[in-house]
Amino acid sequence: MDKKDIARRYLLNDKFEIEFFKVLDKIEIFIKKNVFKYTDFLDPYLAFLCSEVLKTKFDYVNFDITGGYKEAERKILILYPDYCDEACFNTPLKVIKIDNIPQGSKLNHRDVLGAILGLGLKREKLGDIIINDNDIQIITFQEIASFIESNIYQIGRYRVSAYIDDIDNVIPRKNSFITITGTVKSLRLDSISSVGFKVSRTKAMSDIKREKLKVNFLPVLTPSYNLKEGDLISYRGNGRIILDKVLGKTKKDRYKVSIKKFI
C-alpha cells in the first residue's frame, strides 16, 4: 500500500496526516491478516475520507463506520473479515450516563471533556459527548467505560456519579435553534455565513481561506462554494448554522433565505 500516495490524493492539507496514516496502517494490517480491527474515534472529516478510500481503492473490504447512534459526529471505522457480516460482531462501544446533574448547573461540553481528559484519557478514545437538560452521555470504548465509571466523581464544581449503559440506549442530543432570515445575492458560502453568523462578508471570506469554516464537517477553502438547503456550516469560534430553506427571490433578484442557528 502506497500510503503517501493515498494521503496526497485524499487529504486537503497536512493537518490530519498523522491520524490518517494511523487509519491506513489499520487497513493495511487488516488486508494482510483478515482479522477484526477498529480505529480510535475519528472526526467527521477523517471518517468521510476513510469511507471514500475504502469504497474507491479497497472495495473488497468489509467495513462499517459508526459513532453509536445515527446522528453521531465522532465515529470509529470497523473492519471485519469476509467470513463475517455486521450482525456477527458486537460494536465495541458503550455509553457512560450521568443523570444526577443539578438543575440549573449549565455544564457545557468543555466542562465534561476537561473532567474526562483529567483522568489521563486521550481525546481519540472518546466519541460524542451529549448534554441534555437532565443528563450527560459520553460514548467511549467498552474497555475504557469501566475506568470512567469508577473514576469520574466531579464535573466542574458538581459531584456526579456515572454508570455504563448499552450503546443502543443512547438518547440523541436535543438541539435548539433560532431562525434568521435575510437576503443574499447568491448562495455562496461567504454570503450565507455573513448573514447566519452576523459577520461582514469580507471577514467570512478571509476566515474561509484560513480554514475556519466547514460544510457538512468537511473543510471548504473556497468562498464561492455554493450551498444547498440542509447544508450544515460550522465556523470555528462562532458555532453552527443550517441553510434551512431558500424561500424564493425578491424583486431585486436576491435569494430570500431562512437559516437555523444552533443555540
Automatic annotation (TrEMBL):
Residues 187-247 form the RNA-binding S4 domain. It holds the Pfam family YlmH_RBD. SMART domains: S4. SUPFAM superfamilies: Alpha-L RNA-binding motif (SSF55174). GO terms for molecular function: RNA binding. Keywords: RNA-binding. The keyword Glycoprotein does not apply. It comes from the Bacteria. The keyword Protein biosynthesis does not apply. Coiled coil: none annotated. This is RNA-binding protein YlmH, contains S4-like domain. The lineage of its organism: Bacteria, Bacillati, Bacillota, Clostridia, Peptostreptococcales.
